[in-house]
Amino acid sequence: MGVGVVMRRAVEGDLSGLVDLKVAWADRPGEGEERVTLTSALREWIGRSDVVCVVADDGGRLVGMAWMVVFRRVPNLGDTERLSADLQSVFVLAPYRRRGIGRRLIATVCDLADDCGIRQIGVSSNLVAKTLYLSAGFRGSELLLVRTVRPQMS
């Protein structure tokens, strides 16, 4: 079940592979200037101290990724170091799906969060991935509300 695939933190040398994964996720060609712009943006993200990127590496080829953005919450009395995180862009290439790689990516990110004292991780899921997140311990919350900004009409 994807046993030969290694989960590890991304490094700058993974940049090209991460761009390839984001292009595969988009399911459309990412060429020319658009790819250059994405490469530049991801280079910045990899270097950020508040971002963790975990990759699934199959013998030097990146076949999956998961990103976690960590943020500080407003301090409380007796609890001044409140950390939360947002899990984003969990993706596995189609030929590698249903081998437990997505589950391992999520588990690796959650273990890193636990090690850092992050008490809460949120994720925006789609219907296909919802069962995966539920099996990893994520739960819905009646108190989590989301405001979506509507595009302005011109």
Helix and strand topology:
Elements: E1 6-9, H1 15-26, H2 32-47, E2 51-58, E3 61-72, E4 83-92, H3 101-115, E5 120-123, H4 127-135
Parallel strand pairs: 4-5
Antiparallel strand pairs: 1-2, 2-3, 3-4
Number of helices: 4
Give the overall shape, derived from the CA principal axes. Answer: globular
Q: Specify the biggest β-sheet.
A: 5 strands, mixed
The end-to-end distance, rounded to whole angstroms, is 50 Å
Order of helices and strands: EHHEEEHEH
Strand content: 15-25%
Q: Low-confidence runs (pLDDT<50, min 5 residues)? A: none
Assign the structural class, choosing from mainly alpha, mainly beta, alpha/beta, alpha+beta, or little secondary structure. Answer: alpha+beta
**How many strands appear in the DSSP assignment?**
5
Share of helix among residues? 25-40%
Strand arrangement across the biggest beta sheet? 1-2-3-4-5
